[in-house]
Design brief:
- The chain is of the alpha+beta class.
- The protein folds into two domains: 60 residues, Beta-lactamase Inhibitory Protein, Chain:B, domain 1; 151 residues, no CATH class.
- Helices cover 40% and strands 17% of the residues.
- It contains eight helices and eight strands.
- The strands form three sheets. It has a four-stranded antiparallel beta sheet. A two-stranded antiparallel ribbon has the order 1-2.
- It binds zinc ion (ZN).
Length: 258
């Protein structure tokens, strides 16, 4: 009787530990050490959101859940063809994957414009998850490319987004292209650049890009969203540095009452 009681007690003590271990070592049928071949039966690479590879290491992000309305993301890390870890909503990692796939190489982590890279990734890090999922959706992604304002490249230049046969399909719904002046990289602080990037992303989230006749009202809506996202100071600095001057015919003055 006593022995049975001890066993029962042990079971009570140990069960939560076993349950916890089982819960952390499996994710929708994926387990640590699983081969890439089996993993891809559950999470086919063709359905990935974003992807990054470095030698024998791969990071692959999927919508979570994979089917139906996406409520988040899951990133799996594979080393030498085996699953080693996964993380839910690891935004810095997803941003690195996204920028490697959909931004001009100049804006990649190895590119020549570190300030621009930092500004784009900081904005992507801070916007609400719903907006992030929308602008980084590979069916209709935002592409970031550079516009040169010096040298012969200011007349014409090429920025290439490279894809391979292995990549998941992209652009089925189109794409939005945000062109950023290379002069931004010379800015003393990232804040005004972030204000501009947040404003452009707000236009994409609000679907303004599809509207042919642009109005000042659309500008105000975009600015209101930028402030709602928490970029109040960045917005102010961007307006001071790049906003229209008083009396400018193209000026869209802010409604101060809002
Ligand atoms: Zn605008």
């Amino acid at each position: 009787m006593r022995a049975a009681a001890v066993c029962y007690l042990l079971l009570i003590i140990l069960t939560p530990t076993f349950c916890f271990a089982a819960a952390v070592e499996r994710f929708h049928g994926v387990s640590i050490g699983m081969s890439q071949r089996l993993f891809e039966r559950i999470y086919p690479k063709k359905q990935a959101r974003t992807y990054r590879g470095d030698g024998t290491d791969e990071w692959i992000t999927f919508n979570e859940p994979l089917k139906g309305a996406s409520a988040g993301m899951v990133t799996f890390h594979l080393h030498q063809g085996k699953v080693t870890a996964w993380r839910v909503n690891d935004r810095p990692e997803v941003i690195e994957e996204y920028m490697g796939e959909f931004c001009s190489p100049s804006f990649s982590s190895q590119g020549g414009m570190p300030r621009m890279y930092a500004a784009i990734s900081d904005v992507l890090l801070r916007i609400p998850l719903e907006a992030f999922l929308k602008v980084t959706d590979r069916r209709h992604p935002v592409l970031f490319t550079e516009v040169y304002d010096a040298g012969t490249a200011r007349f014409a230049n090429t920025a290439e987004i490279i894809s391979s046969e292995d990549d998941a399909p992209a652009f089925q719904g189109g794409m939005a292209i945000i062109k950023l002046s290379t002069a931004f990289n010379e800015a003393a602080t990232p804040a005004p650049i972030e204000g501009v990037i947040a404003h452009e992303l707000a236009h994409r989230v609000l679907e303004h890009v599809r509207i042919v006749h642009k109005t000042c009202d659309l500008e105000r809506q975009a600015n209101a969203l930028v402030k709602q996202w928490g970029f109040v100071d960045e917005y102010k600095q961007a307006s001071l540095m790049f906003g229209h001057r008083e009396g400018d015919a193209a000026s869209c003055k802010e409604d101060k009452s809002k």
